[in-house]
């Protein structure tokens, strides 16, 4: 007899279905006492994990919709968010623990069962949830949404997980290992290739390789939501009245205490937006960069070459409007171009235009036409793993080499499209050497009409602190010391890379 989730059902002498976990721990509660309903907050977390696993969805896009659908209050919404995001961040460590508690490869488990187990493990090992509540509620969730048979398996597995603390499990999993990368991969829940790449990036950008632990820990910390008030349009007064705090790094920014940001009218109107401080800093650095081109038409022309979904484009457009400039926001895909238009809706229409097209064609179609160009190049997103925890499990090392040609072609196009005396900002949300320094090196090689500006100094100039320590002063190659790299563990921002290139 087979179960609805695959595999052969096994029953004991009393006719009860047996689980396949190692160990025979059953719940001690009588059937009438067992939770049979799904707690709404845990159900939201489970639905987010299922969407990520089954549909390749992004947790940050799914979560708000599920919270609204289940009408969670602020407290339950916070619990659901921490549960889902925590389970996704800790997936590598948790799966290693689960592999010790199930007598078959995890790949043979129904994905729905595995997601329920991950939710249970996170509650047991990393949240202040009493063990009995974590077990009872997770089993109840499984019984409600998966079935009674799988719930018995989940109960037995989670009881074994609860026998040790997270620290004890990690010590057991790493016992006898001597490879620092393997150890960090298990204890900090990152794929080995990412641990290795980030450690190499630290050194290349002038940091100490020993910072890798702090960097990985920062990836696993829940990020604070950052807001930006569009210059000349938005105000943070409403946010401050609601308990938000001023951002310490950049003007017109705020840190959110959590909850539904849609309750703020300024957010609904689009004059205040959610945007990581790292993105705010690189956009402002480009807008403030000194130009040496002579003005002939009285109006600066700006370009955001990869504008979707529109966050940096909206900030740049607001800055352009303040400075009497105009910006073209280019986006290759129609649906993302519509998102850019929505992001720009609050900004005077005469300050911007959205173009749907390939950025690689702009340099050929509009040579030497723009004073400032942002190339926010498609990348692996290794700098935003704290906000997009599922990305670390989706990305592969091969993605780096596959994205390389596109990044180079976009930057080459921008260098063709920028006027003499104008500035191109090459930006990635990744510190990986192949996506940052190597791309800039290739763009500069053999050219005498380009110069690197001091990106670290440019970031300092637009920051409230005046000293971010984002420049790559200790980088092995002198040319690399002119670029800048933000870090989650140092700046509490995404790991944004910035190179400012002026055409002579």
**How many structural domains does the protein architecture include?**
2
Q: Quick check: average pLDDT? A: 92
Low-confidence stretches: 1-33
User: From the alpha-carbon coordinates, what is the Rg to the nearest angstrom?
Assistant: 25 Å
Architecture (CATH level 2) name of the largest domain: 3-Layer(aba) Sandwich
CATH topology of the largest domain: Rossmann fold
Oligomer: single chain
Looking at CATH, the homologous superfamily of the largest domain is Vaccinia Virus protein VP39
Question: What portion of residues is helical?
Answer: 40-55%
The biggest sheet, with number of strands, parallel, antiparallel or mixed sense and barrel status, is: 8 strands, mixed
Which characteristics define this entry?
504 residues; alpha/beta; Rossmann fold; four-stranded antiparallel β-sheet; 12% strand; globular; rRNA small subunit methyltransferase B; RNA-binding; MeTrfase_RsmB-F_NOP2_cat; transferase; RCMT
SSE diagram, text form:
Elements (H helix, E strand, L loop, with lengths): L9 E2 L5 E2 L21 H16 L3 H11 L4 H16 L1 H9 L11 H16 L4 H15 L2 H14 L4 H9 L5 H8 L4 H13 L7 H8 L6 E4 L7 H5 L3 E2 L6 E3 L9 H5 L2 E3 L2 H12 L12 E4 L6 H12 L3 E6 L2 H10 L8 E5 L5 H4 L4 E7 L14 H4 L2 H21 E11 L8 H8 L5 E4 L1 H8 L21 E2 L2 H4 L5 E7 L1
Parallel strand pairs: 7-8, 7-10, 8-9, 10-11
Antiparallel strand pairs: 1-2, 3-5, 3-6, 4-5, 11-14, 12-14, 13-14
Pfam families: Methyltr_RsmB-F (PF01189), NusB (PF01029)
InterPro entries: MeTrfase_RsmB-F_NOP2_cat, MeTrfase_RsmB-F_NOP2_dom, NusB-like_sf, NusB_RsmB_TIM44, RCMT, RsmB/NOL1/NOP2-like_CS, SAM-dependent_MTases_sf
Keywords: Methyltransferase, RNA-binding, S-adenosyl-L-methionine, Transferase
